[in-house]
Structure formats: structure tokens, C-alpha cells
Structure to design on (412 residues):
């Protein structure tokens, strides 16, 4: 595959007239006047910007089916009164179409890889493979459902080594998993050399309960169990003190910031600027579409930037280039994948149509992507395969129609 005459970003500047040669599932070369000896497929990149694939580092993809169902509520009542009762009615077929709907949305926003924690992981993996996306998938684990531990181990055995699906362990949180379950997660992850994905310090109440029960704050408690490491993706991390921030940095933990969901649920504002200053690897996630209500990482970038500027009272905090690094390089490090626009990298990328009013005039390209990008992803490629071309995805109408039917049945 050859992408001809496309623009790129290098050191924050827009470079025009480049070619991207893809062989198999990797970028073979980026340069000028390249030739595709195999003549497989040529994509006209004129007037378009190639960006590396984005990573949604924390979501619950099948919850796209709950979009708009239970808005304007605090986190725990939202979960206990609305979400958990609806989740009890979910079937494999619901998950299949909810995941496909989420994949569809992510492809439209240039997301080529996502990290998920939810039920029916096997069905999630199959639907994701059908859509062609890359994913880190963890079946959620609760003490209240011990069968989920068995399912998690079975999923690891089934999918480890797959080209697109990376199995991960997903203990839900410290308030839903006992010390025994968390220790099991640590041992199982180490035995299988896989990552752990967990919610951490999402609410003030979680911190207070942990102090009362264990005499430690949540980050300290996980550290006492040996769970803090560079193999941990810790979602939210809102209610942290300085010593916890230092501990996250010391243990090289990956923090997944989900600003839109956190703000909508009024859970609080994560101290992202302080985390970055301490050297913590921070990346971005959307959380589920039931609490966001979309899977748009460009929106997350803008929200993350403007909220931190106001939280710190300093407009120079979280510059566009800082946010772009969080959304790309930091995310690649968190998921442990060889991503990015470079020779030899995995061929996960998107093309953005620069001929849009919100991307004109083309002054500071990173500023446009972070603060101005409304839509305009034209083409999405994952693992060397075109998933969307000129804004069109095969089978989109069927997915939208069936997802609507699933929603109506669940809420009837």
C-alpha cells in the first residue's frame, strides 16, 4: 500500500508532499517519491494529514448501548440505580453489537487501539477482530462474581499471542475486589507477562473508605500489595496527594486520564499537571459512552488542556504539544505497542482532511488538532488494512440499526 502526497507532522511543523509505503502490517518507509513495487493499493493523500493511530486507553466499549440512558447523576447512584440493573440484562448478542458500534465510532475518530474492561470478553474480542481494530481486553473482575476469575484465565489462554487482541487482567477497583482477588490478579499477570487495568481513586468516597478499612490511601494500598508497576493502567486517579503522585512516578505506573467523564459525573479534576511534573506517564481515555457520552479523543485532548489551565490558574500549562504527546507517545508506552509514524512501526494511522473550515488557516497544526478538531477523519488504517476510506465503513448501516434494536430491548 502506498499513500501518496500526504502531509505529516515533524517537530510540531507541517510537512507536505510525503509518501508512506506500507508493507504487510508495518510502515516500510516514509519519504518523497516512493514506489510500491507490489502495486497493491494507492491512496491519494493530497490535502490530507497523516497522524499516528490514537489509543483510547480506558473505556467500556459495549456501553455505547447505554449512551444517553442515565445522564446527570453522581457516580455511585448512576451505577447502582441505572447501570448495574441494565448490565444484568446484557446478552452476548448485545455485547457483539455494542462493541461493533463502539469500534465504528472509534474508527471515525482515528482511534486504532483501545483498552477495555467489561463483560463477555470473548465476544468483545471476536467483534473487535471483525471490525479490524487493535485492543487490550480485560474481563472485569468482581468479588461478587467469582466465575469471572475463571473466565479471565480462560481468555488469557485463548488470546495471548494474537496479532490484534492483547489479553489484560481487569480487577474492577479496590472497593469491589478483596485483597485476595487483587493478589490473584498480580500473580496471574506476572505468570502470563500481561498488564493489569484498574479503576483507582476515582471518587473522594473511595479514598475515605480505603483509609477507614486499611489505614492507607488507595495508591498506598495497591503498593502494599505489590500492584504498582509499569504494567499497570490506572484509570482516573483523581483524588491523589503529593506522596501518592510521587509513588506513581517511582513505580512507573501508567495513569489514564478521562476528563470528560470525570467532569460529567462531577467526580473531580485529576492533578494531571502535577502528575506530569513528577514524571508520571499520563495518557487519555474516554471511559464508557454511557458517562461521556462519546468516544472522541480529540474532545478529550481539548478538555484535558483547558481544565488543567483553569485548575492551575495558568494558561501556559498543558500546551498543545504537551497534550499531543500524551495522546500519542505516552499512550504507546502505556499499552506497550510499537506505534507511531516512523519506518518499521505498526501500520496504524489515520488521514485527516485538512480542507475543513475548522482547520483553516493552517498556522499551528498541533493547536488545530487539540483545540479546533471537530471531525474530518477521512481514512483509518489498522495493521496495514484500510478500515475506513473517504469516511465510509462497510456495514455501518447494519451496525447502527441493530444497536438501536438492542437498546430498545434492554430498556423496554
Amino acid at each position: 500500500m502506498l499513500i501518496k502526497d500526504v502531509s505529516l507532522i515533524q517537530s510540531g511543523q507541517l510537512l507536505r508532499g510525503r509518501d508512506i509505503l506500507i508493507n504487510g502490517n508495518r510502515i516500510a518507509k516514509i519519504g518523497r517519491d516512493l514506489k510500491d513495487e507490489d502495486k497493491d493499493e494507492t491512496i491519494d493523500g493530497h490535502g490530507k494529514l497523516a497522524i499516528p493511530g490514537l489509543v483510547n486507553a480506558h473505556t467500556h466499549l459495549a456501553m455505547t448501548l447505554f449512551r444517553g440512558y442515565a445522564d446527570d447523576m453522581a457516580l455511585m447512584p448512576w451505577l447502582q440505580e441505572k447501570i448495574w440493573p441494565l448490565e444484568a440484562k446484557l446478552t452476548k448478542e448485545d455485547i457483539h453489537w455494542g462493541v461493533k458500534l463502539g469500534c465504528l465510532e472509534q474508527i471515525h475518530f482515528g482511534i486504532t487501539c483501545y483498552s477495555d474492561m467489561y463483560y463477555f470478553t470473548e465476544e468483545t474480542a471476536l467483534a473487535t477482530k471483525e471490525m479490524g481494530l487493535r485492543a487490550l481486553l480485560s474481563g472485569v473482575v468482581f468479588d461478587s462474581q467469582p466465575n469471572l476469575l475463571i473466565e479471565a484465565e480462560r481468555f488469557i489462554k485463548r488470546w495471548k499471542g494474537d496479532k490484534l487482541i492483547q489479553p489484560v487482567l481487569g480487577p474492577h477497583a479496590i472497593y469491589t475486589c478483596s485483597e485476595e482477588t487483587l493478589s490473584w490478579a498480580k500473580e496471574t499477570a506476572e505468570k502470563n507477562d500481561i498488564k493489569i487495568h484498574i479503576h483507582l481513586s476515582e471518587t473522594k468516597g473511595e479514598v475515605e473508605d480505603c483509609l477507614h478499612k486499611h489505614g492507607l490511601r488507595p495508591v498506598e494500598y495497591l503498593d502494599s500489595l505489590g500492584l504498582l508497576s509499569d504494567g499497570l493502567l490506572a484509570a482516573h486517579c483523581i483524588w491523589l496527594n503529593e506522596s501518592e503522585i510521587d509513588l506513581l512516578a517511582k513505580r512507573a505506573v501508567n495513569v489514564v486520564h478521562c476528563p470528560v467523564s470525570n467532569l460529567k459525573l462531577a467526580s473531580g479534576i485529576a492533578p494531571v499537571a502535577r502528575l506530569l511534573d513528577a514524571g508520571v506517564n499520563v495518557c487519555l481515555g474516554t471511559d464508557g459512552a454511557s458517562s461521556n457520552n462519546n468516544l472522541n479523543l480529540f474532545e478529550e485532548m481539548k478538555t484535558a488542556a483547558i481544565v488543567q489551565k483553569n485548575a492551575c490558574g495558568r494558561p501556559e500549562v498543558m500546551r498543545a504539544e504537551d497534550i499531543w504527546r500524551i495522546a500519542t507517545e505516552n499512550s504507546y508506552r502505556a499499552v506497550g505497542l510499537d506505534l507511531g509514524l516512523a519506518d518499521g512501526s505498526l501500520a496504524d494511522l489515520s488521514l485527516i482532511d485538512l480542507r475543513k473550515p475548522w482547520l483553516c488557516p493552517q498556522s499551528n497544526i498541533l493547536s488545530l488538532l487539540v483545540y479546533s478538531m471537530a471531525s474530518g477523519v477521512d481514512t483509518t488504517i489498522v495493521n496495514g488494512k484500510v478500515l475506513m476510506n473517504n469516511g465510509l465503513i462497510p456495514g455501518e448501516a447494519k451496525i447502527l440499526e441493530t444497536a438501536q434494536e438492542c437498546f430498545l430491548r434492554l430498556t423496554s
User: Anything to note?
Assistant: The chain has 14 helices and 17 strands. Residues 54-335 form a domain with the TIM Barrel fold (CATH 3.20.20.140). The first helix runs from residue 75 to 87.
